[in-house]
Amino acid sequence: MVTQREITNNAELLSKLATQTFPTNSSELTNALSHYYRGEMARMISWRDRLDRTTNWAIAGSAVMLSVSLSTPNAHHGVLLFAMLLAFLLLVIESRRYRFFHVYRSRVRLLERNYYARLFAPGEMTDPTHWMKQLSEDLRLPCFTITRSHAMARRLRRNYCWLFLILLLAWLLKTTTSALQPAVGVSAFVHSTGELFHNAAIGYVPGWTVVIAILLFYGWMLYMMLMYREESGELAYGEVHV
Predict the structure, then answer these.
(1) For residues 87 and 167, is the Cβ–Cβ distance under 8 A?
(2) pLDDT value, residue 51
(3) Staple partner for 207: which of 1, 21, 153, 201, CB 3.0–4.6 Å?
(4) 205 pairs with which residues across the strands?
(5) What is the largest distance, in Å, between two alpha-carbon atoms of the chain?
(6) Are 187 and 194 contacting, i.e. CB atoms less than 8 angstroms apart?
(7) Span 144-152, average pLDDT
(8) Inter-CA distances, 183 with 59, 74, 78, 82, 167, Å
(9) What mean pLDDT comes out for the span 30-39?
(10) For 96, how many CA atoms within 13 A lie in the half-sphere containing its CB?
(11) CA-CA distance, 45 to 51, in Å (whole number)?
């Protein structure tokens, strides 16, 4: 049977555990900030590694399909279209991961700009209440700091635009060079849009439909990159982005 004394002791213990403890001096505050900074840095690095993995898969997959498509005339140009689709799928996945990465990077840079930078230049004081309140609100109610379209535009400008450009040039080479078609023509390259549409056809899908679809797809990507030309976030403070 539990005695009244044991119940009282357990209640006091639970009360102590439930009591919030905060740093009482500058040393404890510095220690808490150091541990918090290392934790956020680890999460940021983890998401950065996921970004690199997605990019590596996109490059590797596109390289394999480029080799298959251009190695023999019997290879269909649809392989390159599939490579574009695969690269776009990985771009969508990477843009989602970049949004998570940007959350933790923003917290890390907020500490670096407003706390650690002051350690090396104490004269350049910043108001601690502003950035501490901003960090507190972000921890209480985490929100994405960048939209999906903005994240996609950034990854396009930094990595994927070159990958899609290479795939487009390879597709043009495949569809305009007679030597890379199953039936070798007299001339080395096509000389009319009719020949181009004939080479660009996929089964029952006419070639002009495929060409228009590619133009719309690349036009949309160009629009995305131009829509977010003005840099914000860390690039607003300097040229180097982590």
Answers:
(1) yes
(2) 93
(3) 201
(4) 202
(5) 102
(6) no
(7) 91
(8) 30, 9, 16, 22, 23
(9) 87
(10) 6
(11) 10
Average pLDDT over residues 1-16: 56
CA distance 105 to 113: 12
Amino acid at 33: L
Write down the domain spans for the chain. Answer: 30-230
pTM to 2 decimals?
0.80
What count of other Cβ atoms lies within 10 Å of the Cβ of residue 156? Answer: 21
- For the record, the structure tokens of 96 come out as 């989602």
Q: Which of 173, 195, 167 is nearest to 58 (CA)?
A: 167
Residues 6+ apart with CB under 8 A from 58: 86, 87, 90, 91, 94, 159, 160, 163
Q: Would you say the C-alpha torsion 174, 180, 186, 187 has a positive or negative sign? A: positive
d(CA 186, CA 191): 11
Under DSSP, is residue 103 helix (H, G, I), strand (E, B) or coil?
Answer: helix
pLDDT at 17 over 60: no
